[in-house]
Amino acid sequence: MTLKVTGLSAIRSGRTILSPTSLEIEPRGRTGVVGASGSGKSTLGHALIDDLRVQGLSVAHVPQSPDEALDPLRSMTFHWREAEVALGLMPGEADQTGLFKALGIEGADLRKRPWGWSRGMQQRFVIAMALIGIPDLIVLDEPTSALDPVVAAATMDLLSSFLKGKETAMILITHDLGLAARRVDTLIVMDAGNLVEQGRTKDILERPRTAAAKALSAHRSWMALPC
Ligand SMILES: Nc1ncnc2c1ncn2[C@@H]1O[C@H](COP(=O)(O)OP(=O)(O)OP(=O)(O)O)[C@@H](O)[C@H]1O
Ligand SMILES: [Mg+2]
What we know:
- By secondary structure, this protein is α/β, with parallel strands linked by helices.
- It has helices at about 40-55, 75-85, 95-105, 120-130, 150-165, 175-185, 200-205, 210-215, and strands at about 5-10, 15-25, 30-35, 60, 135-140, 170-175, 185-190, 195-200.
- It has 8 helices and 8 strands; from the N terminus they run βββαβαααβαβαββαα.
- A hairpin with a 2-residue loop joins strand 1 (about 5-10) and strand 2.
- The chain starts with a strand and ends in a 10-residue tail after the last helix.
């Protein structure tokens, strides 16, 4: 089923930070959202998630900062159980061992609170929680920002294999064009709260039309990045 949202917008402190935006996301679609810092990528992600959840669709979210997903006063075990309960699973039903092993956080102490784990471990824990169910859409906001390049590439490989054969669509919010070039088929370019360009990743990277896309693709070093 194609996911559709129309007229998403956001106003904060009297300022329009997201102009009315409509999107269609195909099942199994791999879409990147790129743009300069402050261009409205995360705002678009949040608005999209809220709208689709109101429509009754299941959307997994890996927020830009693990702080948005993890309560500093609760243990990691608590967070995991909450995620299972939210998906209607029994405690212990999700394949925690498999997910943790795949993400390289096996053996970490789940009795600890988030601040007892490194940022990179917290980020991978949040990604593991997002992979418990089979959502209609998974929105990943800078999912590898706290990871070193090798772990980042391994994490993206894991995501790709997790999504293989499933209907789940993916939105990858990033300012890392290397990541986008390798991982998504279509790109959305944001600039000052507006969706200014949309198309196939290859076309936008090689023949950008707008100033925002041109500025992003001018930095050709993205070709050399590992993931
Ligand atoms: N709650 C808020 N109140 C006021 N302004 C906000 C709020 N949330 C976001 N903004 C502003 O909206 C703009 C877009 O923010 P957003 O976080 O969506 O950008 P972004 O493209 O995700 O940036 P980054 O790449 O740095 O994560 C920014 O100028 C930001 O300061
Ligand atoms: Mg952001």
